[in-house]
Structure formats: structure tokens, C-alpha cells
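User: Structure with cobalt (II) ion, C-alpha cells only please.
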Amino acid sequence: MAVQISPSILAADFARLADEAAAVPNADWLHVDVMDYHFVPNLTLGLPVVEALRKATATPLDCHLMIADPDRWAPQYAEAGAGSVTIHAEAAKAPIRTLREIRSLGARAGLALNPATPVEPYADLLGEIDMMLLMTVEPGFGGQKFLDVVLPKVRRARELVERHGGRIWLQVDGGVDAGTIERCAEAGADVFVAGSAVYGASDPQAAVDALRAAANRTLAT
Ligand SMILES: O=C(CO)[C@@H](O)[C@H](O)COP(=O)(O)O
Ligand SMILES: [Co+2]
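Assistant:
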């Protein structure tokens, strides 16, 4: 399992997004939280910002759609050049069609589950996805406290993914920092979103390196 770190620009300075992207040249992805005031009680950014970011950085964009109608909008994020587009299982009405469309447009397809959404009902969809995102906070805001209660689900998701061939990435998102990343890695996550822990640090690049090292240390033991 290769560890990947995806800093969330939700915690960055929105007035200086290009500079904030450049501040983490060692990141594998830039995590872009799209919120619409409907699926979650917050509003962030949409397609025009993703299109602008795409031109401003070579780091691939990992778009996390927390929106009420992902079936309608997700393909447009793939068309806008996102390297990965993740939709929420709780919001999608036609997840299989939408995940296939994302892939057909050349992006990786992700399926996200809220903390209280069980993973087992989605076992049959593993062939349709490249990544599963397990929320470790309730979606909507950065800077929340990590929910340990999700860790058993991360383990069960890792088992399902391994039984399916191990090709699917397992991402955790929310409250991931130097104090929680090791538990996530130990439970089987391999892609780590970190907002405050990266952009709240005085040296975001060093914070990415430190998170990666902590996750790798856990996987090595
Ligand atoms: O999707 C979300 C929140 O809904 C996350 O991507 C947050 O942006 C992560 O921020 P931190 O919890 O790491 O500060
Ligand atoms: Co996110």
C-alpha cells in the first residue's frame, strides 16, 4: 500500500489558492471540497474554481462532491480535469451510472460514505470504483474532531477491498492529523486527506512530509 497525502484546500486561503497549491509540491493530490448548502450546511466552491485550479497547478485534483445532485454535476468535474471525482452514496440516486460516467471521462471514480453509513451495502459496487472515501467527521466543515467510532468500518472496508483484489484506494477524510493518522493507517486507510493539519501548520510542505512519514511508520510495523 503506497501512502498518499491529499491536503484539503478548504483550510487554505481562498484568496490565494494558486499559492496555496504551490505550498505543497510534495502532495499526491489536492483535495477540493465542493459543498452546495443542500447536502451539507455549508457552501464552498464549484466548477469555475476547479477549472482555474486545474490551470494553476500540476498536482492532480481530488474533488469531493458534498452536493445534493451528484448525478447531474459529477461528470462536469471530470470534464473540468479533476483526476478523481468522489460522490456521496447518501446523495446519488444513480450511483452506478454516475460512477461509470466519471470513469468514461478519464477520471478516477470515488464513493464516499458518511460516518454513520455502513459499508456492507456497497460491497457490490466495488467493481465500479477506484477509491472509497470514509468520512471521519460529519461532512460540511474543516477543523472538526476525528471520530474514532469510524475506525472499525475502515477495517471492514479494508477487508472488503482486499477480498476484491486490493486495487481500490481507501481514503479517510476529517480530523486527520499527526495524532490520528497512525490509527487510520493501522486500520487500513492508504489515502489521507488533511486540511487544518497541513494548511494550519507554519510549514505546510513539512506537515505533508510528517504525515506521510507517520503513516509509513505504521504500515512498516
Ligand atoms: O470533506 C471535508 C469536510 O466535510 C474535509 O475534506 C475537510 O476539509 C477536512 O478538513 P480537516 O478536518 O482535515 O481540517
Ligand atoms: Co473532503
